[in-house]
Amino acid sequence: MQDLTVTIVQTTLHWHDAASNRQMFTDKLATAAPKTDLIVLPEMFPTGFSMEAASLAEEPEGETLAWMQKMAKQHQAVITGSLIVKEGEHYYNRLLWVRPDGSYARYDKRHLFRMAKEHHTYTAGKEKLLVALNGWKICPLVCYDLRFPVWSRNRNNSYDLLLYVANWPKPRNVAWRSLLQARAIENLAYVVGVNRVGTDGNGHPYSGDSAVIHPKGYKLLETTEQEGIHTVTLSWQELKSFREAFPVHLDADDFTM
Predict the structure, then answer these.
(1) Active-site entry in 58, 118, 139, 143
(2) Active-site pick, 58, 109, 118, 139
(3) Which of 131, 142, 179, 245 is most buried (CB neighbours < 10 A)?
(4) Longest alpha-carbon distance in the chain
(5) Does the active-site annotation cover 139?
C-alpha cells in the first residue's frame, strides 16, 4: 500500500453560473500541486447550493461531467464534487467520482437539508458509494450527510477515507468542525471535509473551515476563511498501525440498515 495525496479546493462560487465556475476551477487547478491522487471540489460547485434545479440541472452526461473528465485526464488524478443533475423526472444533488481514464462513479446525496426545503426539490439517494484509489477504500458523502453517523458508519473497516463535499454555512461551523473530528474518531479513518467560502446568492455566508482529520482526531489541515488550494498526504502506515494498536472496530455493534 502507498500513501494517498489529496488536494482540496476551497473557494467562493459564481452564483448560478456553471461556465464561469468551470473556468475558475480550471485556472485554480493550474496552480495546484504538480502531483496529486485526488482533487476535491465543494458541493454543487458549478452553481452554488440552489433550489432552482429546473433552470440549473444538467443531463447525467452533461458539460460538467465532460469538464471533470478533461481535468482528471489533464492532472492524472481523480476529481470529485457534486452538481445538480436531472434524470428522468427527478433532480439529484449528485456527487461524481471521475477517473483519469474517463470512467466515473456517482453518489446521490442521501440526506436532504429540509431547512432549505432541499427535500422538496431533490430526490434522495438510496445507496452509499465505496470507491478504490491506489489501494485505498474511500466513501464520498455530501454535506448534510455529516450529521447522520449511522449512514457513514465504517462497518468492519469497509473504508479508509471518509470524504464530505459541502456548502455548510458559517452560522453552523462549530457543528461542521466538531462532526468532522467525531466521524474520524468513531470510524478509525481519515476524514476530508471540503467547504466553500464567500456569500451565496441567497445571502448565506460560508467560512470554509475545510479540514483533513487524522483517525486519532487531530487535524492534519485546518483552513481559514480564505480561498486556497491545499495538498496533504495521508499515511497508510499510520492508519494501519493505529488500527492494529487500537482496534475499536472489533467491539462495534453489528447492525444493518
Answers:
(1) 143
(2) 109
(3) 142
(4) 52
(5) no
Residue whose cell numbers read 483552513: 223
Residue 204, Cα to own-chain centre: how many angstroms? 20
Q: Which of 43, 58, 118, 139 is catalytic?
A: 43
Rounded to an integer, the average pLDDT of 24-42 is 93
In the chain the domains, ranked by start, together with CATH numbers, are 4-251 (3.60.110.10)
In 3D space, the residue among 51, 31, 19, 26 whose CA is nearest the CA of residue 41 turns out to be: 26
Stated pTM of the model? 0.97
Per the annotation, the verdict on 59 as an active-site residue is no
In the 3-class helix/strand/coil scheme, how is 110-127 assigned residue by residue? CCCCHHHCHHHHCCCCCC
CB contact at 8 A, 60 and 47:
no
CA angle 137, 219, 252 (to 5 degrees): 50
